[in-house]
Design goal:
The complex is a heterodimer of chains A (about 475) and B (about 650). Helices cover about 30% and strands about 15% of the residues of chain A. Chain A is of the alpha/beta class and about 475 residues long. The longest helix of chain A is centred in the C-terminal third of the chain and has 25 residues. The N terminus of chain A is likely disordered. With about 650 residues, chain B is an all-alpha fold. Chain B has 31 helices and four strands. Chain B has a two-stranded antiparallel sheet. In chain B, helix 1 packs across helix 7, helix 11 packs antiparallel against helix 21 and helix 26 crosses helix 27. Chain B starts with a helix and ends with a strand. The N terminus of chain B is likely disordered. Classes of the chains: A alpha/beta (about 475), B mainly alpha (about 650). The interface between A and B is large, with 78 and 78 residues.
């Protein structure tokens, strides 16, 4: 795998659709990489630049820290138990790191905690109502909606500023989230986008990892030979066709160039990276806990082959998966079964391949949860539990059914971050707010950008004003997190 | 008495009153001075030579408002009597008076400058531009129509004949009939021309056939409506699904919009009904209500301010919604001034989300057009605003829409970007003429489109924008620029060619259309048009936007991700397969010609036909037809309106 450097980026711009041309598709972007007064500053100035690739493992729907990576006082289910006594519905287990305990159900991850940093003090905004779509938008773009221009996804910024590591693999790949036929799909689309950066930098969307290879192959049922013939015929029509008058128009050039890029990708051996059936069966099974697990395997294959930013999600579907409004305990148990082994395996695989040092694996969620409190202390947010009760009566009452914004767990493996490190603290009793080293989305993003060699105040001009990678360019890198 | 004559009277009065009395007046008895109309000509005539265009004699530069105010002495906003500029232009000391050469300023000119300074030194919209630069006028202007000496009766062509001659430009030749019919169909009703119509058009020897075609298309109310529906949905951020609809935080205006386009509602009335709406057209004005707290600059009242200013006036109020703009002269109070017109509650100004303890005062953006009475109740304010927006003296309103339509038809605006109307047009006469033409013709957008589409300018061969630059890199007009098919145009074309597509409109849309509306059955166009259904993956990837923001331009280029979707995506592949089946059953001996005529509105050339035949072979199977269909659909010639 090539290392990230400016030469790579230029190569990409030459061989693939260029950033400048894509920018001209949106007449309003006028923009070099920075404000007029610091146009010449390299985007990586003063950054850590410790990683080439990010794999973001997204715990969609609000993963409760106290059920996963921040165990608190545990009470087993018992009819008649007052809910205020319950902080965790799982007992804590030891990990390979002495001072880090996590929750039962994450036994595989417990064995790899010495490879990364666990942040327990990630806090997010209280936006009145605690809504998944707005918080997910905020987390993925760095900006709270609504915005006057369409804000780009983190991955789109990486694609725009860094390009792909290997130009046969799309720079920004999004695995596991369906954008059609699911609830709140329009809200999801609003941030699964390159926004004003232009479609060239948007996500290559692969909702079903096991079918990913079909996205980089000729249409189903078309032999490679026919696919090749079709393209040759197409090219001859362009070359010898009657259509000569507007030769050289930017639209025409963009069509020919992009069709060529697409054809190259669809007939490239790099397409094999998308094919999970090529993975040895035994190894495949280590990941095969569900769509998310297979997504982790696909992410590993794509990272190996040179993707820049890969997101794998447990998938946001209102009231499913991590979005527990009732039956929290049972659901969290199932979700942990789905994520535990594949994530641990991904870390080990990357390590074994010598890639963990320059690949950053991030695990995060839009907010945490609590059994009693919605939002945080003093919040007037509407209570969204569907299993309201003061004492446990039945199993569906047992779990974290309310949204909590004042703590949250984020894990950072590889990519130059400290190993076996615990960052931040949370109160042992309600309200379990972050009591030390609280870190919000803006600073967390600044830290991730810095790891990727991007200053937190890099901006592009849109409608003549600067739009920064972190909110208003104000993100502060948490140096203490780096190894 | 008009605002202007009151102003002149007031300024003459003040000219004879000692300055200290005038400055002492608390309440200005006169309307605000317009920088563009009154102040800039004075500075341009007397000062710009030494204090702008790269010069700053004596350290004073008028290249921007900021530079003028920089030394804190020359001009002190709000205090003309202390401003050195006034002292110098009125001085009698030959060693110091300004300007040192040329005419002295008249009393009236000095009075205007005093009022301007006392009123806070309002600059032009492009606050970064100097006094010698272009200032977009607000009032309409009726340019003198050049004589028809070049034998081109259309007024657009008469102006352009002068433009071509003056700038020594050789315009592109007139495009042939097949290019024209495809262009006119796609631009006016968004569909490919039917094969029979193409044939009859090409064979028709009537010298007026192009004009007749344009009128015929404009008379097709339904297809016109369902084409321009997408344009207006983008501008008015109207959609059939999306953020806000789920909990009543957003309302569709589809029924109103469909009907307004269908009956070709005069554009001034159209705008009035949007900014001062009845329930059916209220969705644009009321914006999107987000659940939970939002930044003060994004509350619905400020959405109103931003969206109305952008869509109807080509003004960007987004910066000024949060703080005084750094890129032009719009201020927080301007943005809140518009917001307060709409607001049902008292609005407090917030700078960067922090309350300032100051209440917003309803006000209109162009003082020279008129003002809003801040004391009246909301319904009256809105009515006053609607009248000012569409006032005959508000030339910005008409210029903005004619520029948008010109840009859609010609591939590039007279002013670019189309949302920055303070920028200089490449031909002021054409812009100003069209703006006045629209107002003179009852704001009839179809008449405007007809005038543009029947001009020679529109009928010329297309020229890429990047080949339309002079040696200084400035745009010169030689002919229309090619335009990429919109997602809807592309999908409609594919649906008609392959006989696929939905058979009924989206639920939200069917309520919008009359009971008489029937899906199309003649096979010449899609059964139901893509503008009438929610966006699909294919449409989205081809640039149909998420309409949370106002969208006024679509992406002009094909990206790699889009090309992938087109090369192997299920949606297109399935449609092509169905289409190929249909053509295979037809057993058409001239399939090559049929497809070229259907898709490109022309016969294949003598080079192309053998290529197609060779690929298809005798009795082509479905596969071969699929491949040819795909190749033609992906041709730049197909994907562009040339």
């Amino acid at each position: 795998m090539k290392n990230h450097n400016q030469t790579n980026r230029r190569d990409f711009l030459k061989t693939s659709a260029s950033a400048a041309l894509a920018a001209s598709a949106m007449p309003y972007i006028t923009a070099p990489l920075a404000r007029a007064d610091d146009e010449q500053r390299p985007i990586g100035e003063g950054t850590k630049s410790t990683a080439d690739t990010i794999i973001l493992l997204w715990m969609a729907g609000g993963m409760a820290s106290t059920e996963t990576f921040d165990p608190k006082h545990y009470e087993p289910f018992e009819v008649g138990l007052p809910v205020e006594k319950i902080y965790s519905t799982f007992p804590a287990i030891d990990t390979v790191v002495d001072n880090i305990k996590i929750c039962e159900g994450l036994e595989h991850m417990a064995k790899v905690m010495d490879r990364g940093t666990l942040i327990r003090s990630h806090t997010v905004a209280d936006l009145g109502d605690i809504l998944h779509s707005r918080h997910q938008y905020h987390w993925h773009t760095g900006y709270v909606p609504p915005q006057t221009v369409a804000a780009p996804h983190l991955g789109a910024w990486m694609a725009k500023l860094l390009g792909p590591v290997n130009d046969a693999i799309p720079a920004f790949i999004d695995i596991g989230q369906r954008l059609e036929d699911v609830g709140e799909k329009e809200e999801l689309k609003a941030f699964h986008t390159a926004g004003f950066l232009g479609g060239e930098f948007g996500p290559f969307v692969l909702p079903h990892p096991e079918q990913a290879v079909s996205a980089v192959q000729p249409p189903e049922g078309m032999t490679p030979k026919r696919f090749e013939n079709r393209y040759k015929f197409y090219q001859r029509l362009i070359e010898q066709g009657a259509f000569g008058e507007v030769k050289g128009s930017e639209q025409r050039d963009s069509i020919i160039r992009s069709m060529d890029n697409a054809h190259r990708l669809l007939s490239s051996p790099a397409g094999k990276a998308f094919d999970l059936s090529l993975e040895p069966k035994e190894h495949f099974e280590k990941y095969n806990t569900g769509r998310f697990g297979r997504g982790c395997l696909l992410a590993r294959r794509l990272a190996e082959n040179g993707a820049r930013f890969i997101e794998v999600t447990t998938e946001y579907v209102p009231f499913l998966h991590w979005d527990t409004h009732e039956n929290g305990h049972e659901t969290a148990k199932r979700m942990k079964q789905e994520i535990d082994r594949p994530i641990a395996q991904l870390i080990l695989d990357l390590e074994e391949r010598g890639m963990l040092d320059r690949t950053l694996v991030v695990i995060a969620s839009e907010f945490s949860r609590d059994m009693i409190m919605e939002g945080g202390p003093g919040s007037d947010a509407k209570d969204q539990s569907r299993a309201k009760t003061d004492v446990l009566k039945e199993m569906k009452h047992y779990g974290m059914h309310r949204h909590f914004t004042q703590h949250g767990s984020v894990l950072l493996f590889g990519g130059g971050f400290k190993k076996g490190h615990l960052y931040g603290e949370t109160a042992p009793e309600r309200p379990c707010i972050a009591t030390k080293d609280a870190i919000g989305v803006t600073d967390l993003h600044a830290t991730l950008y810095s790891a990727m060699g991007i200053r937190p105040d890099v901006s592009l001009n849109i409608e003549k004003r600067p739009f920064y990678v972190t909110e208003d360019g104000k993100g502060v890198v948490r140096e203490a997190l780096f190894g | 008495m008009s605002v202007l004559s009151r102003f002149i009277l007031a300024s003459l009065l003040i000219a004879v009153i000692p300055a200290r009395f005038a400055a002492a007046e608390d309440e200005p008895a006169h309307p605000p001075v317009s920088f563009a109309e009154h102040v800039q000509p004075i500075l341009q005539n007397h000062c710009a030579k030494c204090h702008d265009n790269g010069k700053a004699k004596g350290g004073l530069s008028m290249k921007s408002r900021a530079s003028l105010l920089e030394d804190g002495e020359a001009v002190i906003p709000g205090d003309a009597s202390k401003s050195k500029l006034i002292a110098l232009v009125t001085s009698n000391d030959p060693d110091e008076y300004m300007p040192p050469k040329g005419d002295r300023l008249s009393d009236k000119e000095v009075a205007i400058l005093r009022m301007w300074i006392d009123q806070g030194v309002k600059w032009n919209e492009a606050g970064a531009a100097g006094v010698g630069g272009y200032i977009a006028p607000i009032k309409p202007r009726r340019p003198t129509l050049p004589a028809n000496e070049f034998g081109v009766p259309n007024p657009i062509d008469r102006f352009l004949a002068v433009y071509f001659q003056k700038n020594n430009i050789k315009p592109a030749p007139i495009a042939d009939d097949s290019t024209f019919i495809r262009r006119a169909y796609l631009d006016i009703i968004g569909l490919l021309p039917p094969v029979e119509r193409t044939r009859s058009f090409i064979e028709d020897s009537d010298p007026l056939k192009r004009e007749k075609l344009v009128r015929e298309l404009l008379a097709n109310d339904r297809e016109y409506t369902e084409h321009w529906l997408s344009f207006w949905n983008d501008h008015l951020r109207n959609d059939y699904a999306g953020t806000g609809y789920i909990d009543g935080g957003r309302r569709q205006i589809t029924a109103w919009l469909y009907e307004s386009l269908y009956e070709n509602k005069p554009f001034d009335q159209f705008a009035r009904e949007l900014v001062n709406p009845a329930p059916a057209s209220g969705g644009f004005a009321s914006g999107i209500k987000w659940r939970g707290r939002v930044n003060a600059s994004q509350v619905r009242e400020l959405q109103y301010s931003q969206n109305v200013a952008q869509v109807f006036l080509g003004i960007n109020m987004k910066c000024a919604s949060c703080h005084d703009s750094f890129i032009d002269d719009w201020s927080l109070s301007d943005a809140y001034g518009l917001a307060a017109i709409w607001s049902e509650r008292e609005l407090e100004l917030h700078r960067c989300d922090k309350p300032m303890g100051e209440k917003a005062v309803p006000q209109f953006v162009f003082a020279e057009v008129g003002s809003i009475d801040a004391t009246v109740e909301r319904s009256q304010r809105l009515e006053q605003f609607a009248n000012l927006l569409t006032h005959e003296n508000n030339g910005r309103f008409t210029r903005t829409i004619v520029n948008r339509i010109w840009a859609r038809m010609m591939g590039r605006g007279l002013v670019e970007p189309v949302d920055v109307m303070a920028n200089e047009p490449w031909n002021e006469d054409v812009l100003d003429f069209l703006a006045v033409f629209l107002a003179d013709n009852d704001y009839d957008l179809k008449r405007l489109i007809e005038l543009i589409a029947t001009s020679q300018a529109y009928q010329r061969q297309s020229i890429a924008v990047d080949q339309s630059l002079n040696k200084d890199g400035q745009f010169i007009f030689r002919g229309p620029a090619p335009k990429r098919l919109t997602a809807e145009q592309f999908v409609d074309a594919v649906w008609s060619i392959t006989g696929t597509g939905p058979d009924k409109p989206n639920a939200g849309v069917s309520e919008a259309i009359s009971k008489q509306w029937q899906p199309r059955a003649d096979g010449e166009g899609p059964t139901v048009r893509s503008s009438m259904v929610v966006s699909s993956l294919l449409m989205r990837s081809l640039g149909r936007p998420n309409r949370e923001q106002v969208i006024t331009t679509r992406p002009n280029e094909l990206t790699t991700l889009e090309a992938l979707t087109l090369s192997n995506g299920d949606e297109l592949t399935n449609m092509i397969q169905k289409g190929a089946e249909k053509y295979a059953n037809d057993n058409d001996a001239h399939l090559g010609e049929t497809l070229f005529l259907r898709m490109l509105s022309r016969q294949p050339t003598k080079d192309e036909l053998p290529m197609v035949h060779a690929y298809l072979g005798e009795n082509p199977g479905k596969d071969k037809i699929e491949d040819v269909l795909w190749s033609l659909l992906l041709l730049p010639e197909f994907q562009l309106v040339n």
